[in-house]
User: Fold these one by one.
Assistant:
Number 1:
Amino acid sequence: MIEKRKIILDCDPGHDDAIAIMLLGAFPEKVQFAGITTVAGNQTVDKTFFNARRVTEYLGLDIPVYRGCEGPLLRSPVLADDIHGETGLDGFTFHDLKRSPETEQGVLWMLRTLREAAEPMTILATGPMTNLAMALRLEPEIAGKIREIVFMGGAMGLGNVTPAAEFNMFADPEAASIVLSSGCPLVMAGLDVTMQALCSEQMISRMAGRNNPAARLFKDTMTSYCAVECKTYNVTAAPLHDPVAAAWLLRPKLIELKPMHVTVDCTGREGYGRTYCDYYGKGGGRANCRVALQLEADAFWDLIEEAICRYGA
Ligand code: RIB
Ligand code: CA
């Protein structure tokens, strides 16, 4: 019996967020979207909201999309437009939207949906955690309706936006701190594991060869994203961050997890947004998070290709 997860995706599309949507949308027998909430991160919330609508409609996914918080809880706004561009999804041309936008505020929709859910739901967070933190502060008891929070963010080692911090954490450290201390079961896909999912030009050609709408989305978005990533970080292949977190929902055996106590630096100094992962358990804190260590990379790319093929010719 395949267990079907009902999920809320909280995201900031964003090229890799878009591929995560494509990945999960290909397996409706495993993942049922209650909806998508969007947050400021890779671009402004207006642009991430627009992009999530464009991607779901382009792929023919009937998923309601909601606009979340305007910006981080406390810190000054920071965007990743240096990577994702002016639109937040540079490189792909979409047709005009036909579906009218949802008007309910994303955090309020998230709370209503969780409150009304018959069973606790899974939340996949692939952007800054502003919406989630706001929901937990507005209704702390809502944590009881969250089965687990699977998030792309943080790192045991180096950051990618400062030497210390990964972008999703850096963009709203206080929000991340609220989520990390919420008591909700947590699965963290940090840079240590997402940097194992490296998308090369050869990988783009492999996926493009499937020659259908999802293949075109992958090809065009990844060509643009990889060119910028490779130039920015002086590498020859770009990490496909968010789909790694999404893949855990579909094939958990692809990723090795280790329980750890994880906190985030909110001091506002050079370590701002850094996640401290107590790998050896010597810090005395209770393990609040299962941290992803190892990815079966070949199987991950096979899963991406399988997802693309499921979108037909
Ligand atoms: O650091 C990588 C994360 O920041 C990804 O979620 C990417 O989409 C950006 O939001
Ligand atoms: Ca993201």
Number 2:
Amino acid sequence: MSSTGASLQLPLSSPLIIKGEEGDATGGFVFERENPANTRQVATAAAEGSLEDVRAAIDAAREAFDSNTENWVYNYKLREQVLFRTAQLMRENADRLAKVVSLEVGMPMRQAVPHVAAAADIFDFYAGLAGKIYGETFTLPTGSMINLVKEPIGVVGLITPWNFPLTQTARKVAPALAAGCTLVVKPASYTPAASYELIKLMHQTSMPAGVVNLVSGPGRLIGAEMVTSTKIDKISFTGETGTGKDIAARAAHDVKRVSLELGGKAPYVVFDDADIDAASRAAIFGMFRNAGQACGATTRLIVQEGIHDAFLSSVVELTRGIEVGDPSLQSTDMGPLISSSQERVVQEYVDFGMDAFKLVTGGNKLHGEGFDNGYYFEPTIFDEVDNSSRLSQEEIFGPVVAVTTFKDEEEAIHLANDVDFGLVAGVWSADYPRAMRVARRIRAGTIWIWDNYAQPVEGIWGGYKQSGIGRELGYYGLEDFLEVKQIFTDGTGLTMKPPYAQVIKQ
Ligand code: NAP
């Protein structure tokens, strides 16, 4: 089964890109990425970079930053052009990009197509900001002047996850380039081709060689080298909280700047007066988009007692209507999980849930025609879940949702906050002041009122607590790649300035 790879020549090839040149890994090592919708098919054959390769990529980025000031770091017009042209090229190649993402991730085409469009929009947005990085100035009473200038942070190592490979890469690459940085990108090993296809397009713009380098290969080798390399000024990482903690600890050794976009366990608070139809549709979008493999996935439905039965029956009805299957088909709402190991993780949480709580729908791996060669799992909902249990506390990264009830506003806020994560949350109430009160008290980077999983590039994305450090998207996303420098210029003209008398007598 699976026509996911239709019209793509498989396996896709995914070479390294170092100093503008595509090439094999040293020693010619290659790793294969299977198609998660049809494991008999090899989706991608990717270059497995070595330490030598990543060091060459870091050197190329360092050289492009240090010796190319006129033609990159100071040349915001060039950076603007590169970013605009990348957005254009992405749109011209949208069909291929969407198919590559769908193939490697198992993402339904109905989600992969808007995913490409969202990534292109991010390049457009930051193209517009490249020439608007204003500093500040302040004149002291003496006439001396403080100039605060914003400068690129330098060489940045970008380490990305597999679940939304183009937008996750775009959220880092586009603002970093707008700022004037140079980069080494290490894509997730499940999705090397998605990143390669994007960075290949970037090399069709007027971007100087060495500005963006790509090295695929194991995170524990390639990523780890980037984290400890003293030639890299900053690491921008998106992935699991455990990996992020390890990276932050190792990067601290040379006080490397770090931003971290990590896991989540999003609460979705539904009050008795919520619009059931709107709230349940929005919930489903957050619960099962990309098979629940999303950091901001709606994973905990926190529902007021009076609306519990009606809301849950609406959610369950919509869930049962979800068509799981071949990601390439327009009718498919949910594709496979990313891998056999992820399938095992999901199964393990579901087994735990079956023993401890009330299974409302789903709970099974899918078998039979069309499913046997992929990692297909039913959308699954458990009711009467104890918020302190593993099902409500740990990131599962699959289509598994826990329902918990609450009595009043105070309890809803307590339950929403009672996790280690704080990435996103949803609030539904017809009483706007109440929704706003609750939104202000939930400790998370984004709170949606009357919507779910909206991520406009003009907004922000990032976590409180163990969901991360820093913000992506919007102007804040650009600031993550900037340093602020003070340039102080004397305005007095005095040879013997008053403070010097502290050291010089005449
Ligand atoms: P992951 O296993 O932590 O991997 C993320 C990236 O880090 C991959 O490129 C990986 O390479 C690399 N890596 C692994 N070990 C490393 C090490 N020791 N040093 C340096 N790099 C290393 O995460 P994932 O499974 O790809 O992504 C899913 C996770 O990402 C979930 O927890 C999700 O919540 C989180 N996420 C967060 C956001 C957000 O914005 N907050 C967005 C999307 C996803 P390999 O692939 O080669 O192992």
